[in-house]
Specification:
Elements: H1 2-6, H2 19-27, E1 34-37, E2 46-61, E3 72-73, E4 82-85, H3 91-102, E5 108-111, H4 114-122, E6 128-132, E7 137-138, E8 143-150, E9 153-154, E10 156-164, H5 170-185
Parallel strand pairs: 3-8, 4-5
Antiparallel strand pairs: 1-10, 2-6, 2-8, 2-10, 7-8, 8-9
Length: 188
């Protein structure tokens, strides 16, 4: 809304996809800016702007023994299924990322939407990794967010804006500045 008010002549087009899809859209020049989580080391050919560092949680059924914990170590979840939201074509990449980078075990359940994933959580089928704010119980006291730790420390993830350094579109930089202001204004 703020960008449209400042630049009414500019038409915005949005893309959705997994991390790799969006990276390809960016480096091919089909997008001026990508908003995404950080999944790899920052590339030297991009402006890489961290917009927010968010704590990781797992959503668990309120009936799970995990719901009684103040926090859970990632290693304690190695035998607990990890529920992920991903399209069929994204399952392998998501499994690899959550196993190799975050340290989840080898048992994964995939849902095609967040509501579907939460049904799996509520029914006690596994845990759903999420980022964001802590909280008590959600959705009529059916699931709870439990902070996720690695060696006693919160696991943090970055949400970033990415732009190619050789992109000369001034609107991309202006949009990035508005995004940064929005994210700084959030109570993350």
């Amino acid at each position: 809304s703020a960008f449209a008010q400042l630049h009414p002549q500019v038409e915005l087009e949005t893309f959705t996809g997994n991390h790799e899809d969006l990276y390809q859209v960016l480096i091919s020049g089909r997008a001026d800016l990508v908003l995404n989580d950080q999944r790899r080391a920052f590339a030297d050919h991009c402006h890489n702007r961290i917009l927010r560092r968010s704590a990781c949680f797992v959503e668990v059924s309120v009936h799970s023994p995990l719901a009684k914990l103040d926090a859970v170590e990632i290693g304690e979840l190695k035998n607990t299924p990890c529920i992920l939201v991903a399209g069929e074509d994204q399952e392998q990449e998501e499994r690899r990322f959550y196993r190799d980078n975050l340290g989840f075990g080898n048992d994964y359940l995939f849902a095609r939407s967040l509501p579907e994933a939460r049904v799996l959580v509520i029914s006690g089928r596994g845990v759903l990794p999420v980022e964001g704010k802590p909280g008590g119980t959600y959705t009529g006291a059916t699931f709870k967010r439990v902070p996720l730790l690695r060696q006693g420390e919160p696991i943090l993830r970055n949400t970033c804006a990415f732009r190619m350094k050789d992109n000369t579109n001034p609107h991309a930089a202006a949009f990035e500045e508005l995004l940064a202001g929005h994210f700084l204004g959030e109570d993350a």
